[in-house]
């Protein structure tokens, strides 16, 4: 049997889909797993041992379809469900298994605050797509694999807090001043993690205490940043890819929620019976959360209470508790 999984992006969404790749590979004898994703997402899965062959989409969908026609897929497993994936499905003409995207339920929740979301995490819904093949969730959580030899050493031998300061959208991240206040409340070594776009902010935060705060934003590859998360004592992150990579390594995590929320069924996902500690930092009783349009540069309401009213001392207290051995 040959399966084509489609999940174009983004980092967090691909990691959240990782249980489906693993369960299919381990439960279907002789199965051959193919994955179609964006070329920019190559590093997210290239070391995944459960995927046999990769296909990368750049900008020419017609060329991608022609490439895929060279394989005899038994099923397409559509874990993205957008116009591109529908075009591929129509062009290949093979049976399709697709996850429940809950588009109507998300619309009701974000536009009208009417919660009809089922109590079913997106990672479980990804595995549910494979139910017609007899595949079930194995309870082992998420996966992320770092190529052998990837190492970032010499950072705070006594341990450190990994603080992921970036996010895909401005409305999903703490303002700079709040991040500065937070690091002042944490007495432990801190490694700031982010991309090139966070480099300047990271430098400003690290300047508050250069001996205790290290800015790595824009310095390392995805693999190296993932290694920093893997080796941390605990991880603080906005709703971004590194949050779910931290879950894959079963790190104690503090998830800071702004425009999005756990109500969207994307909360940190750990293996069953895990002793890992998870704290959801979320401002209570906000009628505008999750946001009606979280992919923006500014709060549509103008107040940005979901981040500006975060209880930073409570987050710092959680850091203190998680820093100690269980």
TrEMBL record:
TM regions (residue ranges): none
Pfam families tied to this protein: Glyco_transf_9
Enzyme Commission designation: 2.4.-.-
Enzyme class: transferase
InterPro entries referenced in this protein's UniProt entry, alphabetically: Glyco_trans_9, LPS_LOS_Heptosyltrfase
UniProt keywords, alphabetically: Glycosyltransferase, Transferase
GO molecular function, one term: glycosyltransferase activity
Top-level taxon of origin: Bacteria
Name of this chain's protein: Glycosyltransferase family 9 protein
